[in-house]
Design brief:
This protein is α/β, with parallel strands linked by helices. It is about 30% helix and about 25% strand. The protein has ten helices and 13 strands.
Length: about 280
C-alpha cells in the first residue's frame, strides 16, 4: 500500500522536533506501507507576530525538517486580505526567514488565499473557511504529483503542521475497502464532534474529504446534519442543541462526508488542543 501524508497549514510548530519526530515514529509503525510526505505551507500568519512567536521556539531548521521528512513535494501559499489584493499581488519570489535563515519561494496566484464573508452562504466562521480551501489546493498538488510521477495512493492522510502523534496507532489496512471510508478521531474537551485537524481517507473518499470546501461555501445541499455524532448525542440525552454547535466546523465536515455517502469510522483516540497525554495533541 502507498500513502500520501499531506501536511497543510502555517509553518508554526513544524520546526519543533516533537511534531516531526512523532510523524516519523508513526510512519515507522507500518513497514508494509510506503509513505510519501507532501507539504502545503504558509510562512506567514494573519498576525505576523504570532508566526514569529511560534517559530522562535522551534529547535529544528527548515533544512533539518526537510531532511527528516523527505518531502516529495513542497508548495507554498500566502494569505491576502481580499480578492482585490489578490489581483494586484506581486508574484516575485517570496522571501521568508526561518530560524534566521533566508529562504526563497515562488508563490503562484492560484495559491493566494483570502477570506471574505460574502463568498460563503452559511454561518461559517470567517477564519475557518480558508483552512479548507487550502486543503483542497494541497490535494490538487498531490494529484498532480501522482500523474507526473506515475504513482497511485491507496491512503490519504491530512494533518496539521502542529499536530503531535503521541502513542497513536490505527489499523490503516482497514481502509482497504471498495467504498468511501474515512477514519477520524473526536476533538476534546467539550462537545465538538469529529476532529477537523486530521483525517485518514481511502482512495474512494479522498475526493470527498479534500473538497469539503464546497460545502463551506454553500451548505444548502447537505442533508445529514441530524446524523452527526455530537448532535445524535444531544438527541439521545434529550438536550437542546445550541445554534453555535449545530453550525460548527466539525458538524459541517461530518455532514459533508455523510451527504456524499462516505462512511465515517470514529476512532477511540481523541485530539486535545493542549500538550497532554492524549493520543494526538496540538502543540501550542
Amino acid at each position: 500500500m502507498r500513502c500520501a501524508f499531506i501536511i497543510v497549514g502555517h509553518y508554526r510548530k513544524l520546526g519543533d522536533s516533537r511534531v516531526v519526530d512523532s510523524i516519523v515514529k508513526f510512519q515507522n509503525q507500518y513497514p508494509s506501507i510506503v509513505f510519501d510526505n507532501h507539504l502545503y505551507v504558509s510562512f506567514d500568519d494573519n498576525d505576523g507576530k504570532l508566526f514569529h512567536h511560534n517559530i522562535s521556539k522551534n529547535d529544528l531548521t527548515f533544512d533539518e525538517v526537510k531532511e527528516k521528512m523527505n518531502f516529495c513535494s513542497i508548495n507554498t501559499f500566502k494569505y491576502v486580505n481580499n480578492r482585490r489584493e489578490k489581483q494586484k499581488y506581486d508574484l516575485d519570489s517570496h522571501h521568508v526567514l526561518i530560524n534566521d535563515k533566508k529562504y526563497d519561494f515562488t508563490i503562484e496566484k492560484q495559491n493566494l488565499t483570502w477570506s471574505l464573508r460574502t463568498d460563503q452562504r452559511g454561518k461559517i466562521c470567517n477564519q475557518i473557511f480558508p483552512q479548507f480551501f487550502n486543503i483542497k489546493k494541497a490535494y490538487e498538488f498531490v494529484k498532480k504529483y501522482e500523474t507526473e510521477n506515475d504513482v497511485s495512493y491507496d491512503i490519504y492522510i491530512r494533518s496539521r503542521t502542529d499536530l503531535v502523534f503521541n502513542h497513536f496507532h490505527v489499523d490503516l489496512t482497514q481502509l482497504n475497502t471498495d467504498s468511501p471510508c474515512v477514519f477520524v478521531p473526536t476533538f476534546t474537551p467539550g462537545d465538538h464532534g469529529i476532529a477537523d485537524q486530521i483525517a485518514f481517507c481511502n482512495k474512494f473518499a479522498s475526493d470527498i474529504y479534500f473538497n469539503v470546501e464546497s460545502s463551506f461555501r454553500d451548505p444548502s445541499k447537505l442533508i445529514c446534519r441530524e446524523q452527526c455524532i455530537v448532535l445524535r448525542k444531544y438527541r439521545e440525552n434529550n438536550k437542546e442543541i445550541p445554534n453555535a454547535l449545530y453550525d460548527n466546523t466539525h458538524n459541517i465536515l461530518n455532514d459533508h462526508l455523510l451527504s456524499n455517502n462516505c462512511k465515517i469510522i470514529i476512532l477511540n483516540s481523541t485530539i486535545t488542543a493542549t500538550p497532554s497525554s492524549a493520543d494526538l495533541y496540538i502543540l501550542r
